[in-house]
Amino acid sequence: MKPHNTQKGTAREHILAVASELFYKQGIRSVGVDTIVAEAGVAKMSFYNHFKSKDLLVEEYIRRRDGWWRNWLQTTVERLATSPREQALAIFDALGERFNNPAYRGCAFINVLTELGNEPEHPAYQAALEHKQQVLAYIQGLLEAVGVADPPHLARQFMLLLDGALVTAGREGTTEAAGLARQIATQLLEKE
Amino acid sequence: MKPHNTQKGTAREHILAVASELFYKQGIRSVGVDTIVAEAGVAKMSFYNHFKSKDLLVEEYIRRRDGWWRNWLQTTVERLATSPREQALAIFDALGERFNNPAYRGCAFINVLTELGNEPEHPAYQAALEHKQQVLAYIQGLLEAVGVADPPHLARQFMLLLDGALVTAGREGTTEAAGLARQIATQLLEKE
DNA sequence: AGCTATATAGACAGGTCTGTATATTTAACG
DNA sequence: CGTTAAATATACAGACCTGTCTATATAGCT
Predict the structure, then answer these.
(1) Best mutation site among A135, A171, A182 for testing chain B: the one with the most B CBs within 10 Å?
(2) Quick one: which H or E segment has residue B161?
(3) Is residue A173 scored above 60 in pLDDT?
(4) Which of A10, A158, B108, B149 is deepest in the core (most CB within 10 A)?
(5) Max Cα–Cα distance, chain A, nearest Å
(6) Which nucleotide is nearest to B43 (CA to C1')?
(7) Distance CA A47, CA A100 (A)
(8) Which has the closest alpha carbon to B180: A188, A75, A9?
(9) Cα Rg of chain A (Å, integer)
(10) Closest Cα to residue B5, out of B40, B38, B37?
(11) Which of B27, B163, B170 is opposite residue A164, by nearest beta carbon?
(12) How would residue B51 be classed by pLDDT, with cut points 50, 70 and 90?
């Protein structure tokens, strides 16, 4: 939409940013290349000059969002809490902040896994799976710092709470799911 | 595929059954009318003679599955347990049986809500929302029979566990998520 | 047997999608 | 100023989609 800079790589970033917003808001199958180029204010050939195909653009959308999301989570957790135990619970406080955004439309990674459920060979499908693995690893690290008895097991339980909260919040459009999950997680930690 | 009976309504049921299987397996957007009629072994005009549009077929797919799913859940819960407390936990044992099916491809209702995320006015979208409300009401009824302090609140927590387990199992293709959720639910009930 | 309702195959209209081709204009730079 | 590289608008190919139309065939029923 904005006249993009002519600096090297700026147009590409602009297209990626516009596409990412559309993909998250409307779903990757509902957004066509024509819509992306129109919204980005570039010619179609410019798009295909920067991206080999729409599938690879979607993959990059997911990989970028993975990096952004996990960085956001870690940063927010460290901002909200200091002790390991409080940090583990702060995961759900972070979610609460996220759900507060009226533009929240569910978990982009779960959404892509669902939309691409019939083509798991799609590069974005694999990228989304890897994202969930990375988040699990991060949570497990937090729980190891807490010193719980079985970090891998509890991490999987936390991950289930996280996915449940993401889906619930996407459906209800409210922030309540974060509080529900946080209460449950608190009880799991108290049990230790 | 099978030559359908000529009894009144049988062809319609056959088409609906074939379409439902395809919709669940591949997603509603990936399955076109041509594929449905080819797989069902009927002519395209026969399809449109029985269904006004694909959108309404999808709605019926969801409403039928809602009825089937909740009946399955209630039946299975009553088969697995008798006391209210055990029945509430048996929800997750039932899930375990479901996840055992290699054809499990995630929660059909969550999948449709995601696939239709950009057109919430779609009749199937509303039907899927109503399904989740009905399941919540059923769980709340079970917890009221248990006699917990705050049935609506605990029911929402159980629902979050259920959705989390459905999503996790769909992603991992294993049955473990049911056990994880069940353990958490057990702790929530012990707390009472 | 003959009438009627329905099922059939297949073409087709009008729209969408991804990706490519072409021909023109713009911008950078020596 | 003049050359070169990149962005532009536009058209198009080929595939797919939903829904309609037509003309033929089949089945049940009296």
Answers:
(1) A171
(2) helix B151-172
(3) yes
(4) A158
(5) 59
(6) C8
(7) 34
(8) A188
(9) 19
(10) B40
(11) B163
(12) very high
